[in-house]
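Whiteboard transcription, Tuesday session. T.W. wrote the structure tokens on the left side:
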């Protein structure tokens, strides 16, 4: 959005003073209000955390030059073919004094940036493969990275990988002044002209109909009334493994899109993509136990030590998305959505092989029906494949703002999952 559109957005937000002020602030900082900001405006408290964190990452104190930060954003977005983010940060890269030659592709960039490609690839698709060796490769030899630079680069990569999930999950397409852009529309179903051959919109995918909100409310109430079930560690691991195996059976019918040249030029090893954690070699990549390395107890302090204040920014953002609630679900009020939100968050981590030892994974199958799990998996692991059918046929009784909230949780849980693996690798290298 540009200056001619600003009065229009102020007018329609006149009864949302907090959102209005955030939009004005975003406009003054960037001379535009992008579609991401507009959609996140459904949740102004979260938007404030997000904008503060992104501003700090891209324009605040930190070891990396500003143009490097935007180029890393382009690299990250390229892994998921997210032209929207790539176009935005190509412009910012030039505005920050970046060399236009770099925009021809990795071979035109300094070796220091090219050395980041392997970490970018693994973090985007299979973060469990990261090891201290990858950190060592960045910090040794000519064109080496300092640990502080590595930390900022890792957080930038995770931020923009996860933002790709949000952009695609909400159906954001290139803006009107970008190649292939058009005026914003409010949902994927309006934006995406792609439909499946059967044109199905009956709420059924993967051979299973979607349960209604009333059924979901009954299940959440039952979980709340029963309280935490006493189970052994062996039983909790058994349930985790069961859901993990079931998740590997969920596939998307959508094909991976063929990247256009302007995206492909930034991507090395473009065929490398997500594979189910359940199919890895268990001996070399065991389940990540959150009790052994958690965000709260370990990663938070490491992030703050190497990149002051970023851990606090991220922690605020994670907590805001996880705890955000208006106590509604569809047309129902006074709803405790804790169990539903927790199941979404922990299921995303499960897709990355991360187990929360204090969680009963049996609740995942009670609260997340197969269509929703398929949507979560697609948006989290290969957002570039999301189709109109997958968006339209999930959470059909939810308000649009509630679907946006689910996508915010996908963004944050995914970023936290990537960071747990990456920061553990940094910690292992340091010790």
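and on the right, the sequence the group agreed on:
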């Amino acid at each position: 959005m540009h200056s001619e559109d600003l009065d229009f957005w102020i007018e329609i937000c006149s009864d949302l003073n907090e959102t209005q002020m955030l939009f004005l602030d975003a406009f003054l900082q960037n001379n535009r209000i992008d579609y991401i900001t507009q959609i996140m405006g459904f949740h102004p408290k979260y938007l404030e955390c997000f904008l503060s964190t992104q501003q700090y990452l891209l324009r605040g104190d930190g070891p990396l030059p500003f143009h490097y930060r935007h180029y890393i954003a382009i690299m990250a977005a390229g892994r998921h073919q997210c032209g929207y983010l790539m176009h935005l940060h190509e412009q910012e890269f030039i505005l920050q004094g970046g060399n236009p030659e770099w925009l021809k592709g990795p071979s035109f960039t300094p070796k220091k940036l090219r050395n980041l490609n392997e970490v970018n690839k693994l973090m985007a698709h299979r973060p469990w493969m990261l090891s201290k060796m990858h950190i060592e490769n960045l910090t040794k030899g000519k064109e080496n990275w300092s640990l502080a630079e590595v930390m900022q680069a890792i957080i930038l990569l995770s931020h923009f990988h996860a933002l790709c999930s949000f952009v695609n999950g909400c159906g954001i397409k290139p803006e009107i002044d970008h190649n292939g852009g058009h005026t914003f529309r409010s949902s994927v179903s309006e934006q995406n002209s792609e439909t499946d051959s059967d044109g199905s919109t009956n709420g059924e995918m993967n051979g299973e109909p979607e349960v209604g909100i009333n059924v979901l409310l009954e299940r959440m109430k039952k979980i709340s009334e029963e309280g935490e079930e006493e189970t052994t560690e062996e039983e909790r691991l058994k349930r985790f493994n069961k859901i993990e195996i079931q998740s590997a059976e969920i596939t998307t019918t959508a094909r991976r899109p063929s990247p256009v040249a302007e995206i492909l030029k930034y991507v090395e090893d473009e065929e490398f993509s997500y594979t189910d954690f359940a199919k890895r070699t268990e001996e070399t990549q065991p389940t990540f136990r959150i009790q052994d390395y958690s965000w709260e107890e370990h990663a938070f302090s490491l992030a703050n030590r190497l990149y002051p204040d970023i851990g606090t920014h991220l922690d605020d953002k994670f907590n805001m998305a996880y705890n955000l609630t208006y106590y509604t679900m569809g047309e129902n009020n006074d709803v405790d959505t804790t169990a539903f939100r927790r199941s979404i968050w922990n299921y995303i981590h499960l897709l990355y092989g991360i187990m929360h030892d204090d969680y009963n994974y049996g609740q995942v199958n009670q609260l997340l029906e197969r269509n929703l799990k398929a949507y979560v998996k697609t948006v989290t692991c290969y957002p570039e494949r999301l189709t109109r059918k997958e968006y339209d046929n999930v959470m059909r009784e939810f308000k649009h703002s509630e679907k946006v909230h689910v996508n915010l949780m996908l963004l944050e849980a995914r970023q936290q999952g990537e960071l747990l693996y990456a920061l553990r690798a940094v910690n292992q290298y340091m010790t």
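Someone added at the bottom: The two ends are 47 Å apart (CA to CA).
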